[in-house]
Amino acid sequence: MSLKKIKIISVFGMFLLCFLTHFLYNWLPNSLFSIFFPVNESIWEHMKMIASSILIFSIVEYLLYKKYRVNHNNFALSMFLEIAFSIIIFLIIYLPIYHFTGSVFILNLIVLFISIYFVNIISFYILRLRPLHKEIISIIGIILVYILFGILTYYPPSNYLFLDPVENKYGINIYEL
After folding, report:
1. How many structural domains is the chain composed of?
2. Structural domain harbouring 27
C-alpha cells in the first residue's frame, strides 16, 4: 500500500469518525471528553470534533505506515498542521455560507469533507518532505491546541462562534443569554 492510498483512506476514515466524535461527550460526559469532543452545538465546539477525528485516525494511519512499510517523514508535524489547517479551512469556507444560509446539514457535511480532503493533501506533501526535525515542536503544538480547546470550553467568549443555538448557551457552562 502506498502513502497516497493511505491518505485516501484517511480522508474517508476521518470524515466518518467525525460522526462518532460528535456524540462521544453526550454518551460519556466527563472532564476529559469535554476537552476532546463537542459539548454543545456551537460552531467552535465542532472544531474539536474535526481535530479529534484527525488525531484519532492519525493513529490508524501511523499503524498502516508501519504495517505496509511506507516511507514517511514529519508525522507529528503533518498531524499538527492537519489539525490547525482543518480548523482554519473549515471556518474560512463555512462562515460565509453560514451567514447566508444558516446551518444546513448537507452543506455542513460538504464543507467538512472538503476541509478534511484539503488537509490530507497538505499532509501528503509534508510526509514526503525530507525530515524537518520539528516533531517535538509539533507535539507541543497539538497539546497547546487541546489546552486552548479546554479553556474555551469552560470559559468561552460571548461570541456567535461559541454560542450553542440549540440550548442558547456558551461552552459547557449552564448559564444562558
Report:
1. 1
2. 3-170
Q: Show the cell assigned to 162.
A: 461559541
Does residue 121 form part of some domain? yes
Q: Is 50 exceeded by the pLDDT of residue 176?
A: no
C-alpha cell at 19: 460522526
Strand intervals (E) in the chain:
163-164, 169-170
Contacts of 12 (CB under 8 A, 6+ apart): none
Rounded CA separation 43/160 (Å): 8
Model pTM score: 0.93
User: What number of other Cβ atoms are within 10 A of residue 154's Cβ?
Assistant: 14
CA quadruple 114, 118, 121, 127: dihedral positive or negative?
A: negative
Given 3-state DSSP classes, what are the helix, strand and coil percentages for the chain, each rounded to the nearest 5?
Answer: 75, 5, 25
State pLDDT tens for residues 57-115: 999 999 999 999 999 999 999 999 999 999 999 999 999 999 999 889 999 999 999 99
Q: What is the pLDDT of residue 171?
A: 87
Gap between the Cα atoms of 15 and 114, Å rounded:
10
